[in-house]
Design a protein that fits this description.
alpha+beta; globular; binds zinc ion
Length: about 200
C-alpha cells in the first residue's frame, strides 16, 4: 500500500537536492503545465540575496533624476521587499500562519484548516500543456499544434514604471519561487522516481 505518509517520508528523507514534478493549473492564467521544482532550498537566503542585489542597483540609480520611472520602480520594489523580509521570514504572526500548519520540512507543509499540502520550491522547468490536444511546449500563449489558447492572458497597457518593475523582478531569484497546493488524493498517487516525487 502506498500511503501518503510513506511516500512523503521516503521523499523527505532524501539527502541534498530533491525535486517535485507535478501537473498543475494556475489560477491566474488558467494554464495547465508540468512543473519541476527544487525543494529544500533556503528561501530566506534567496530573499536576502535579492535584497542585497537590489540595494546595489539602488546605489547605481542615485544618478537618475528624482521622479524617473526606473528610479521610482526600484525604490518601490525595495520597500516591498524590505516588507516581505520583515513579514514572511522569521516569526511574523501575519504570514507564518502559526499554529495553522505543520511543517514537514523541505518546503512541504500541511495546512490544518484545509487539510491541503503546500509544496514550495524553486522552479527548474515548466512545460505548458494544451488542454484541447495535449500538445506540450515551453513558450507561447497559443498551442503550436491546434492553435487553441493555452490560458487566459489579459492584455495590459503597462506604464513605464510597471515595465521597469517587471524588469527588476526578472533579475530576482525569488521570482522563481513557486508554491503549489495539493490535496491528499493528489498526493496519494505520488510516486518516487529517484530524487523526484512525481505527482500526476
Ligand atoms: Zn493544442
Amino acid at each position: 500500500m502506498n500511503t501518503i505518509k510513506n511516500v512523503l517520508n521516503e521523499f523527505l528523507a532524501i539527502k541534498g537536492a530533491k525535486f517535485v514534478s507535478l501537473v498543475y493549473t494556475t489560477k491566474g492564467h488558467n494554464e495547465l503545465a508540468r512543473y519541476k521544482i527544487l525543494v529544500g532550498c533556503d528561501i530566506e537566503r534567496i530573499y536576502r540575496r535579492d535584497y542585497a542585489v537590489l540595494r546595489r542597483m539602488v546605489r547605481k540609480t542615485s544618478l537618475l533624476a528624482v521622479g524617473h520611472p526606473k528610479r521610482k520602480a526600484l525604490l518601490e520594489r525595495l520597500a516591498s521587499m524590505r516588507e516581505s523580509l520583515k513579514n514572511q521570514i522569521g516569526n511574523n504572526k501575519r504570514f507564518t500562519r502559526q499554529g495553522t500548519f505543520e511543517s514537514l520540512g523541505n518546503g512541504v507543509s500541511k495546512l490544518f484548516t484545509s487539510g491541503m499540502y503546500h509544496v514550495k520550491g524553486i522552479q527548474v522547468s515548466k512545460v505548458k500543456i494544451c488542454k484541447a490536444c495535449a500538445h506540450e511546449q515551453n513558450k507561447g500563449e497559443v498551442c503550436e499544434s491546434c492553435k487553441a489558447p493555452l490560458g487566459i492572458y489579459k492584455k495590459v497597457n503597462s506604464t513605464e514604471k510597471t515595465l521597469a518593475k517587471n524588469e527588476i523582478r526578472r533579475k530576482e531569484k525569488q521570482s522563481k519561487i513557486r508554491e503549489f497546493k495539493l490535496s491528499s488524493s493528489q498526493l496519494g498517487v505520488a510516486k518516487l522516481n529517484g530524487k523526484t516525487l512525481e505527482i500526476v
